[in-house]
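Summary for the steering committee. One of the milestones for this cycle was to obtain a three-dimensional model of the protein with magnesium ion bound, which we needed before selecting residues for the alanine scan. The sequence and ligand used are listed below.
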Amino acid sequence: MINRKSRDEIKRMRHAGHIVALVHQKMKEVVEPGISTKELDNIAMHIIKENRAVPTFLGYAGFPASICTSVNEQVVHGIPSEDVILKEGDIIAIDVGATYGGMVGDSAWSYRVGKVSDEIDKLMKVTEESLYAGIEQMCPGNVLDDISKAIEAVANREGYGIVRQYGGHGVGHEMHEDPFLFNYSVGDNTLIKSNVAIAIEPMLNLGGDDVVVSQEDGWTVSTKDGKPSAHFEHTVIATDDGPLITTKLMN
Ligand code: MG
Ligand code: MG
């Protein structure tokens, strides 16, 4: 069942989203060659806790960290580690979740480590563009497929792979609520009603669509062909005034 958020729930979601955005603001500053993904996790955990929120991911289905850090060919769900040291030319997708007042904010962003190749730079720009194309469709009266089609059109224009096994999702009291949102058209004509919240999160690949889950840690999802992947995500509420992104800094 797709639930609709009350005014008070939306207020708390914006607060949670603000904290997630504070983490991303800091990540943008500290992501550089030489830092480990474990250090990034520690910094994120500190910011979430000092803002009286709870790191949503920590302990979720047994996940051992506060953020997901997915480097280069890793798509999502990478586990922070002291042994993963970022180097010039890498890209890292950092996924952050914070729960405040029982409500969740969920947002992922991909970052350049130093200077990246032109093709990676473009992959990042286009994936971010596809996110905003999807967000634009997050309006009452549209259907889920409008969002999926908008994301897919941007990816197809550049010939990028679209990750099929993962996608967006309803969000609120729980990190994962109904509905599931595909990043490509499947003809889902579910109506988007006002005050429905969805985490929209395209994952685009420089190569093919296919991904594999690490046998070693059971979490890390990587592209099958080993080519880079980018991931951008915002939590968005469909309001009568248009799409409301909760995971950004409040003024
Ligand atoms: Mg996320
Ligand atoms: Mg998500």
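Key point for the committee: The domain at 7-245 is CATH 3.90.230.10 (Creatine Amidinohydrolase).
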